[in-house]
Amino acid sequence: MFKKLQAALGKGGAKVDTVLDNPTVYPGGVLTGRVDVRGGEIEQQLEGIRAAISAVVEVESGDDEWSSARLIGEQRISGPFAVSPGQHASLPFQLQVPIELSPNLVGSQHIHGLKIAVATVLEIDNAVDARDNDPIRVQALPAQEAVLYSMQQLNFHFKSADFEAGRVPGSTLGFYGEYEFDARSSGRRFKEVELTFLTRAHDLDVLIEVDKKGGFFLEGSDVTRRFTLNHQDTDVQSITQHINHVLGTV
Questions:
Q1: Neighbour tally for 198: CB within 10 Å
Q2: What is the mean pLDDT of each successive set of 10 residues along the chain, which is 250 residues long?
């Protein structure tokens, strides 16, 4: 009886561990792996296993701001089954990564503010669900990488990145990745520049929001520019010139 109570509270119950074949994937790619389930100290009835891609999203409402995990493309890996003490079960799975999901790996550089993981839930009848969270790296597509390198060529220094709640016109996720650059050393009348990708199967939009400095008796203002690149557009020099031209219209 005591073991049943402990298992119901999550101690000594069934455990779940997600093992990815490769934790690095491109936007639009597929993550594969297996979910390992190991029985606890008593037999338990499992209601099923669910897995999804999870992103930590910053939410703002009025003066309040908080972080929230958003699940993408949730999949049911298993239906109900019983697991005996010490029993081991291994179930394969795959998850489609949305092509809109902003990358958190550029070349070999990991962007820590964009937190993405595979979240797995072992649903246990009459007990606390067992969970596992495995970070993944979403590798920038060549055109995305070229855009971010072009920002460096223009002397915009990368500051931070995060996922913001909201919808970029044309997107479906309900949040978007935002890359923030310090513009003070660029020689322009900008405080900072924020960059967002909206990626599709054959091309991508680049959205650049400029935080303009104010002057005497003038308030600063935000200005947004948007342009489209094909996935074959990977020449850093050409993209640098184009971004420089776009920013010249601000």
A1: 21
A2: 40 87 97 96 94 95 87 94 94 96 96 96 92 97 97 94 93 94 82 94 95 48 89 97 90
Picking from 121, 103, 123, the residue whose alpha carbon sits closest to that of residue 111 is: 103
pLDDT score at 213: 55
Question: What are the distances in angstroms from CA 45 to CA 19, 84, 115?
Answer: 23, 9, 32
- Residue 213 DSSP one-character state: P
Position 65 scores a pLDDT of 86
The answer for residues whose C-beta is within 8 angstroms of residue 122's C-beta and 6 or more apart is: 14, 15, 16, 37, 46, 49, 129, 130, 131, 132
Distant-in-sequence, close-in-space partners of 192: CB < 8 Å, separation ≥ 6: 159, 180, 181, 182, 183, 211
Name the DSSP class of 98: P
What is the rounded distance in angstroms from the CA atom of residue 138 to the CA atom of residue 224?
Answer: 26
Cβ-contact 46, 158 below 8 angstroms: no
In order, the DSSP letters of 30-82 are: EEEEEEEEE--SS-EEEEEEEEEEEEEEEEEETTEEEEEEEEEEEEEEE--EE
Residue with tokens 């460096």: 152
Helix (H, G, I), strand (E, B) or coil at 188: coil
CA 47 to chain centre: 28
Supply the pTM of this predicted model.
0.88
The type of residue at 218 is L
Predicted confidence at residue 226, as pLDDT, reads 95
| Contact of 77 with 49, CB cutoff 8 Å | yes
